[in-house]
Amino acid sequence: MPQVLSHRQLSDIAATFGTPVYIYHAERITEQYNLLKDAFRNVDTTFFYACKALTNINILKHIKSIGCNVDCSSVNEVQLALMAGFPPEKILYTSNNISFAEIETAKELGVHINIDSLSNLEKFGKKYGHSYPIGIRLRPNIMAGGNLKISTGHDKSKFGIPLEDINKVLGLMKDTNLNIRTLHIHTGSEIKDVEVFAKGIEVLFGLVHHFPDLKVIDLGGGLKVPYMPGEMGTDIRALGAKVAEEFIGFEKSTGRKLEIWFEPGKFMVSEAGYLVTSVNVIKQSGDIRFAGVDSGLNHLIRPMFYGAYHHIENISNSDGKMLTYNVVGNICETDTFADNRLISEIREGDYLVFYNAGAYGMEMASNYNSRFKPAEVLVKNNTSVLIRRRETLQDILHTQILAAD
Ligand SMILES: Cc1ncc(COP(=O)(O)O)c(C=O)c1O
Asked: What is the pLDDT of residue 150?
C-alpha cells in the first residue's frame, strides 16, 4: 500500500498553518523513486527528477538526499538545483525555444544539455565544436499523452527537432564536429501505454548508427500516475522489463551499450502532494450546489487548463451523507475544480483536500486577482515543517516600482 497522509494529519496541518496550504509527504516521494529503481534494476538507468513539477528547494534537497538526479527546464531551475546541492554532473537541462545565451550559461555551469533546435545546435557546434558533449531533443512524431496540451512528440508539436530534419543534424555534426552524446525524446505526459515508450526506443535505435559518440538514450518523462480512484498508472514493472529487453537485445545485436535516462516529474511528486482548502460559501442555485473554497485557478490551474481530474474529499465530515457538488474557486473567472462531484456533505468552514497536488500545482500558481499563493508544508519523519510562508501584500508589491507622478 502506498504511504498516505490521513485526514487527521491533513486537518491538523491545516489548523496549524492555515489554508490554502500545499502539503508534501517526503517518504511518499522516496517510495516512488524506489519503485523506479527496482523496476529498472536490470538495466543501466539513471533518473532525473523533472523539477518543473515542483521546485521548492526543500523538495530538491530531499530528491538529492535519496540519490536521484534532476532535470531542469530553465537556467533558473539549474541554479536552484545547484543551490540545493546537486553537482553539475547530476543536473540535466532540457531546453525548448530558448536563447543561445541561456544555453551558454548552462554550459558555463557544466551541466548536461539537451538542445532542441537546429539554430542553437549550429551555434553550439560553431562555438564549442567537439569540446562539450551535448544531447539533441528530437520530435519523434508520436502522438501520446493524456490530452493534446500535454502531448509533445507529435508532428505538429513545437518541441524538439523534427525527425524529418535528421540529415540537417548530421550535416551540422559533420561541419562543426559536434559531440552528440545523447538522443532525447519526451513524447508527452500521462502515458499509460508501455508500447508508446517501446515505439520511441525503436525510433531512436534506428538513428544510433549515425552517431559515433552516442552514449545515452534519454526517454524523457511522462509516466502516468492514477488520479481517479481505481484508475491505473503506467505499469512500471512492465516498462522496466520492456526497456531491459530492448536495450539488452540492442547491445547483443550491435555491440553498443547505451545508458538509459528518464525524466519523471509527476511520477515522483504528484501523489505526494495535497492541497487543503477551506470552504467559504455554500450556494444553492436551482439543482446545483456550489461549494466555494478559499482557492482557485491561481493555486491549482490544472482542472481549468487541461481538464485535469483531482479527487476531492471533505476531511472535516468524512462520514457525512454523500451529495453532489460543484466545487469552485474564489477567482473572478469560472474556476471550476469539479462538476457534479459526489462528496460527503460540505458545510461552510470545512476543509476540502485535493489529491495529486504535488506536480504542477504550486509550481503553476500565480497572484491573479492579487491573491496570495498558498503556504507549503513538508511532512518528513512524521514532522510537519513550513517550507514556504504565506504571502503578504508586501510580497505582491515587492518588485513593483512606484513611478513618479
Ligand atoms: C522534457 C521533459 N521532461 C520531463 C517532463 C516531465 O513530465 P512528467 O511530469 O509527465 O513526467 C516534461 C514535462 O513537461 C518535459 O517537458
From this structure: 66
